[in-house]
Amino acid sequence: MKRYNHIKIINMSEKRGHYTQHGLHLNKIGKEWIAKKTANFINNLFANQKPVLIPMKWEEIESEKIQQSTGLREKCGIRGKGMK
Question: Does the predicted TM-score (pTM) go above 0.70?
Answer without folding.
Answer: no
